[in-house]
Automatic annotation (TrEMBL), chains A, B:
Domain of life: Bacteria
Gene that this sequence comes from: rex
Entry similarity comment: Belongs to the transcriptional regulatory Rex family.
Designated name of the protein: Redox-sensing transcriptional repressor Rex
Organism: Citricoccus muralis
Subunit structure of this chain's protein: Homodimer.
Length: 225, 225
DNA sequence: TAGATTGTTAATCGATTAACAATC
DNA sequence: TAGATTGTTAATCGATTAACAATC
């Protein structure tokens, strides 16, 4: 179940990125974006550590996997580090994403806007409810979910956000995969069965809140990340 | 930064639960709920493993921390295991939760319904926009975020879901903590600074999607959980 | 009994922290 | 130079897997 370690395609050079390190890259990147906007030139591992809730040793370890980007005594050049992480995460290549399930959650995500800054374009919203088809959702118009094949072909999307009810999720996923989707961000509280070559990430909101409640009850403190 | 290991208060007996094991409990529970509803009496570690995307050895290890609940040759009694996990996660004690930020995402979560089954009641929705105050949101009526103190006192909530824009998140969190909130589920793409005794869990949707895109590009396969 | 499956210990693996020389 | 901070190796820690006797 644990991902096999594998070389990162676009990596400048240097060592392997652990699975956990990879999870932290977007967090570092968010901070770097803010620092770049503010015109800051260098950032220390200590500062990035505070932003990510990690130790500074860990930050240095993570970043050393991208190459020798830092300058002893000064820190890491913001722009260079930003570019290196963006390259690893493939942001330069703008990627089309489709969203299936135009309920409140789907609508929230379409309007969220945070995707564009990360190289991801929501190019189509689909829904199975004929009543919703044709209605606006953000800047887009809701399309018929039964036409997912056409939409995927037209947009070239390989990623999908799935915000349909739990009982509809597996069928929807099957359809998406059948038509070429290779990565699914699943908001339905259901474990999807997909072919080996398809990646799935699960966002289970109630599980998160339940664990938070547990942490709270048991007196656990601090960032429960 | 890593949570200190600590004895679980309501634990029947038995060993310590690792942080990762704790994360898996809600997943097991979801499956157990379904099995119980179907009238199944016993479930094997193999079946739970398939549902959770873990190995069956790991499932047995996790569950052994709850006590010797299984029967060799038969499996785990569904009802007993269900009750044990619910007790650990504190579901029996229904907990009030408030939600701050009644945009699309907040509305989606209020209407989501999956919380109730997990012992969590969304008892109030708040928003800072005077235009929204007084309007309905699911079964509730939106209240004024500036009155968070009164609401928290009235409802006794110690948990909050934060679905406000990123730039408003820290101020909102400060206010909530000031009025007694001790756990925050944060959807804003911002690292919150909170006192040590407050727990925060972050749900960063665009980071998840970005990582998914990365997995996809780099040809990584399978459940990227 | 034979087959299945648990609970637990030991072995492995991966990730984090500690330490420190090298460098600005 | 002195102080700060990186990059990297070794030590520690925690989590997962493997193995197997005990039990239904």
């Amino acid at each position: 179940m644990i991902s096999r370690q594998r070389d990162v395609p676009g990596a400048t050079s240097a060592g392997p990125l652990s699975r956990r390190a990879l999870d932290r890259l977007p967090v570092y990147l968010r901070r770097l974006n803010a620092l770049a906007a503010a015109g800051t030139e260098y950032v220390s591992s200590t500062e990035l550590a505070a932003a990510a809730g990690a130790s500074r040793d860990l930050v240095r370890k993570d970043l050393s996997a991208l190459g020798q980007l830092g300058r002893p005594g000064k820190g890491y050049p913001v722009g260079v580090l930003e570019a290196a992480i963006e390259q690893i995460l493939g942001i330069s290549t703008h990627q089309p994403v489709i969203l299936v399930g135009a309920g409140h959650l789907g609508t929230a995500l379409v309007q969220y806007g945070g995707f564009a800054a990360r190289g991801l374009d929501v190019v189509s919203v689909l829904d199975a409810d004929p009543q919703r088809v044709g209605q606006p959702c953000g800047q887009l118009t809701i399309e018929d979910a039964s036409r997912a094949g056409e939409v995927i072909e037209r947009t070239g999307a390989r990623l999908a956000i799935l915000t349909v009810p739990g009982e509809a999720a597996q069928l929807a996923a099957d359809d998406l995969v059948h038509h070429g989707i290779r990565g699914i961000l699943n908001f339905a509280p259901v474990e999807l069965e997909v072919p080996e070559e398809v990646s799935v990430r699960v966002v289970d909101v109630s599980a998160e809140l339940q664990l938070l409640a547990f942490h709270h009850i048991s007196g656990e403190a601090g960032s429960a990340r």
